[in-house]
Amino acid sequence: MRVPLSWLREYVDLPAGETGRDVQAKLVAAGLEVETVEQLGAGLKGPLVVGRVLAIEELEGFKKPIRYCQVDVGDANGTGEPQNIVCGARNFREGDKVVVVLPGAELPGGFAISARKTYGKTSEGMICSASELGMSDDHDGIIVLPPEYEPGTDAIELLQLVDEVLDIAVTPDRGYCLSMRGVARETATAYQLPLSDPALLDVPAPNGHGYPVKVADPVGCDRFTARTVTGLDPEAHSPIWLRRRLQKAGMRPVSLAVDVTNYVMLELGQPLHAYDRSRITGAIGVRRAQPGEKLTTLDGTQRVLDAEDLVITDESGPIGLAGVMGGANTEIADTAADPESGQVAGTTEVVVEAAHFAPVSVARTARRHKLSSEASKRFERGVDPEATSAAAQRTVDLLVLLAGGTAEVGVTEIIAPSAPHTITLPADHPDKVAGVAYGRETVVRRLQQIGCDVYGADDLTVTVPSWRPDLTDPNDLAEEVIRLEGYENLPSTLPRPPAGRGLTERQRLHRRVGRALAGAGYVEALNYPFLGDEVLDQFGLAADDPRRDLVRLVNPLSDTEPALRTTLLPGLLGALRRNVGRGEHDLALFETGLVFRATGDEPPAAILPVDRRPTDEQIAGLDAALPHQPRRAAVVLAGDREQAGWWGEGTPVSWADAIEAGRVVAREAGAELIVRQDQQDPWHPGRCAALLAVVDGEEILVGNAGELHPRVTKALGLPERTCAMEIELDRLEQAGAGRVEAPHVSTFPVATQDVALVVDGSVPAAEVETALREGAGELLESLRLFDVFTGDQLGAGRKSLAYALRFRAPDRTLTAEEIAASRDAAVSAAAARTGATLRGA
């Protein structure tokens, strides 16, 4: 909504020195979004005057028609002599009144005017167009003024070129501010000044002599006012002040009747429509459209109507979409002269419609036909139903005043019975909402300022004004009190959480895992939790794979991803692919989050009531309808783990790095991972590890890690040798020892012993490691596999595993005998469990 400050001053007597910026600050503090304050006429300097064209000489020999004009500007040039001006416009003739800028003036944009020679003549100024003066974007010719203005009259004041315009972004709940009346009310309240309400007019009572109207749908149209004006002068044009106000408000002047209805809409917020009476057949009706009916609207488009469209009709059928746009067959006729008789033809009788339509009906019709209009924008947000009579009267008064018409005595007004909306409000309710002691007097005063009638002492009975349909419950009224008292006056207080509460163990593990992976060099990538069947096909998952049991969304954001994810890998691999495509080749990404696994036993979710809090049983029913949602962590890697440089070649990532990422996660849960060879899509069958943990004495699968299958990397457009790991945090938490305790650091020296054990090639290294730990006993501090060797000297199908064992006691320095005994016990346990022998023994 564009609000000219000069127009606003007609309804609120603002202080003389108050600027648009000052008003903007006040309205913003009151809760309105004033986006900009446009300075019209900034940089404009006179003399800019009215001139009368005395003579026109057509200049020949140029690429375009050029005119050399003599223009009477009165005494504005100091001599009284005519000004000689070169002009290329063709839309004026001798005797016309035009706008002339004289040498020494400056137009908006820093365009200085001086006498200069052009087209072989000296031009002493310029005849101006609307675009050159910043009035509009009209480049179709210069401004031709009505004949009543004398040459030399100051055109800056006449055309109201200097002004300030506030551009307000009206939110959907503030539909009343799509009018000068509504903005003026907010301004008057903000400045604590009286309001001159433009809707306070003397309106004649309805009678039986008005234009006949039949409303068949009182729900869609609860109020309809019709007035008739006859004897309009078809040659009458909108006066300058009316056209300028429309232009400043962002609307284009069209014709007098249309301009008047647009003006009243901007002034009072009530959309109106003027019908050419000669084009209406019979009574005006309001009903729902018949399926298949057609209507050509004012924009020239023929529209096929829907059964839910509310339409205005006459005996010929639909003549307008109610609250959206009128029909072309009843529009105001353009003024035209008969070439034979010379008589001017045009609309001389109009029927003015001022109605109130249901907001939802108008909104649905506008969206159904993709037809947003100034009228529909207002009806959608709520229009004051009590303003229809005043708006019709204001329109009639302006048509009579400006077009010489006569208002017929007949007044048609159809009103569906309705009662004013009342709200019961405890007087201290705004205090409780805001945490500020306003007091009853302040609450009552503020509610009265927005137009409410307030009665009562401790419990207030508030009658909401007709122009505020957004006020429906006590919290709405509390918000009004708070915003008028000033949001900036609300104290900033931090909430105090009750003692003894904090993160759950699940949340702590989640955070620890994120920090550990970030510390290991991974970068977190958060992805949408949506999935499609295509990526599961690219993974090569079997038809009976549990990851294909998807939870599908009723209203997905994308048709290609209509379900919730059952694994974190698709999102992470998509992020990896995008980064590779942008030139990043060495990548290590991780994500922690939920996956959604349907069990098939979920009952259907019930539809909960919205008028009260659901019961505990209803909430439990909703929880039961949810799929299983385990929390997982996943990583993906590609490129080099260590960069190449002068020190040597880089180290590419491998399946071992993915497995190590699983160990990093398990350590944060206090769990010990068991790593075994596995075959699982989408991993490479020979480079895939199963990650297991012990829960209640039983080994369970908690995840997989390794290198992705070449078929998968090709299908997804990923780098070769891309590796990935996915692990379930909830199962790791069950396998863990609870909160991870900080280790005790011994001050005594460590003793290191290396052993190389030869085992069969099918024996997992993890099984050898477990046997060594069990045999070494409590003196073993750490164990690390640092070499794997195969060769002919070991024999076919044999491998050598070299381990570094670190021994330390917390209370003493170990003796050589104790170290040797622990080492020998570890080797013996490995030999008994896996058949290992010491290499070289």
Automatic annotation (TrEMBL):
Record has Metal-binding as a keyword: yes
PROSITE patterns referenced in this protein's UniProt entry, alphabetically: B5, FDX_ACB, TRBD
Catalytic activity: tRNA(Phe) + L-phenylalanine + ATP = L-phenylalanyl-tRNA(Phe) + AMP + diphosphate + H(+)
Protein keywords: Aminoacyl-tRNA synthetase, ATP-binding, Cytoplasm, Ligase, Magnesium, Metal-binding, Nucleotide-binding, Protein biosynthesis, RNA-binding, tRNA-binding
Keyword Transport: no
Domain B5 as annotated: residue spans: 418-492
Domain FDX-ACB: 746-839
Positions bound to Mg(2+): 470, 476, 479-480
Every TRNA-binding domain range: 42-156
Note describing how the cofactor binds: Binds 2 magnesium ions per tetramer.
Localization in the cell: Cytoplasm
Domain of life: Bacteria
Protein EC: 6.1.1.20
Named cofactor requirement(s): Mg(2+)
An MF annotation (GO) of this entry: phenylalanine-tRNA ligase activity
Enzyme class: ligase
Annotated family: Belongs to the phenylalanyl-tRNA synthetase beta subunit family. Type 1 subfamily.
HAMAP family for the chain: Phe_tRNA_synth_beta1 (MF_00283)
Subunit record text: Tetramer of two alpha and two beta subunits.
Name of this chain's protein: Phenylalanine--tRNA ligase beta subunit
The organism's taxonomic lineage, starting at the top: Bacteria, Bacillati, Actinomycetota, Actinomycetes, Kitasatosporales
